[in-house]
From TrEMBL:
Beta-ketoacyl-[acyl-carrier-protein] synthase III C-terminal domain boundaries: 229-318
Superkingdom, taxonomy of origin: Bacteria
Gene for this chain: fabH_2
Originating species: Propionibacterium acidifaciens F0233
SUPFAM superfamilies: Thiolase-like
EC numbers, comma separated: 2.3.1.180
Any one of the GO BP annotations: secondary metabolite biosynthetic process
Name used for this protein in its record: Beta-ketoacyl-acyl-carrier-protein synthase III
Molecular function per GO: 3-oxoacyl-[acyl-carrier-protein] synthase activity; beta-ketoacyl-acyl-carrier-protein synthase III activity
Length: 327
């Protein structure tokens, strides 16, 4: 049996937060939507999403990220001034300079934090936790905040089915080195051979995905999930929840079929919130814990894939019980 790479490092995901753009649009009220054969193949006919969120000009990546980060710190009982590391995942609002992360650290009062941006598409949260764990395991850092913040609505063709499927949101998690092994393992891979599968048109800024996207994505995510199970000598039945990146309705159906994983054990806020890219996993976790859908102590696997750079990976972890409630 391979022991998870983070076992013995005392790393714990101990607080989550989320923020969804204030404007919530019910998809049943939207008319005049057009689609293309490629969009039908990638997104499905309707996308299955009941509503989506659209940020206004005041809700930029930094604003949404700061709201989610503050909530995650409160949930973890952590004063932002004690944050050593802040990692921001974002691909929808890339610019030359400055990076978002140092601005977010300043906004939340994490004045001493090393802060930087990463860009791994929708896999950014998994990559962010994977990266933060390496920093914290070196014992020079103790508390990290990992955030996914995306304005995805600005990266789809106006008037298309894509507008119904994607949302603007942020999700955040606190990862602390506190002596408890909540984060068990993580894997992360990239391959440039499939980078063409999802691109952004430089003239419009809109995402363009090839028809084979979902088929390839399902294979990559299933492989990452299977890899993490085999590395830790686990069977499907030992995982309490699968919380993957939301992606699209055809993708989710393809993943269920390939993994033969019980639908009742797959958690996602996709159908009520839309695809929020790198914010989808932490925002789903935050909402699930808040509503009591998920419980502390349960074993969770979170696979994800990011198009464009074609990165994919998986986290394996438990949200441990509060120390005050332990026997």
């Amino acid at each position: 049996m391979h022991q998870g790479r983070w076992i013995g490092k005392g790393l714990e995901l101990c607080g989550f937060g989320h923020y969804f753009a204030r404007r919530r649009v019910e998809n049943s009220a939207v008319s005049g939507i057009s689609t293309t054969p490629d969009e039908v193949k990638v997104l499905g006919r309707t996308g299955g999403v009941t509503a989506h969120h659209v940020a206004d000009d005041t809700e930029d990546v930094g604003y949404m990220a700061a709201q989610a980060a503050r909530e995650a710190c409160r949930a973890a009982g952590l004063d932002p001034k004690d944050v050593d590391l802040l990692i921001l995942s974002n691909w929808t609002d890339r610019w030359c300079a400055p990076e978002w992360a140092p601005l977010i650290a300043m906004q939340i009062g994490a004045d001493k934090a090393l802060a930087f941006d990463i860009c791994q598409g929708c896999a950014g949260f998994v990559h962010g936790v994977h990266t933060a764990a390496m920093y914290l395991s070196a014992e020079d850092y103790q508390h990290a905040v990992v955030i996914g913040s995306e304005r995805f609505s600005r990266r789809v063709r106006p008037g298309s089915t894509g507008e119904l499927v994607v949302s603007d949101a942020a999700g955040a998690a606190v990862l602390s080195r506190n002596g408890r092994d909540g984060l068990i393992d993580s894997v992360m891979h990239t391959t440039g051979t499939l980078a063409h599968t999802t691109t952004v048109d430089p003239r419009t800024g809109w995402v363009r995905s090839q028809r084979q996207l979902n088929d390839l994505a399902v294979i990559a995510i299933a492989d990452a999930f299977q890899e993490i199970l085999e590395r830790n000598d686990l069977g499907h039945d030992e995982v309490d929840w699968l919380i993957p990146h939301a992606a699209t309705e055809p993708f989710q159906e393809g993943l269920r079929q390939r993994l033969a994983f019980p639908p009742a054990k797959i958690l996602s806020n996709f159908f009520t919130r839309g695809n929020t890219s790198s914010a989808s996993i932490p925002s789903t976790l935050s909402e699930a814990l808040e509503t009591g859908r998920a419980h502390r102590g349960e074993l969770i696997a979170s696979p994800s894939l990011g198009g464009g750079v074609w990165s994919y990976g998986c986290l394996l972890y438990r949200i441990l019980p509060d120390e005050t409630t332990r026997d």
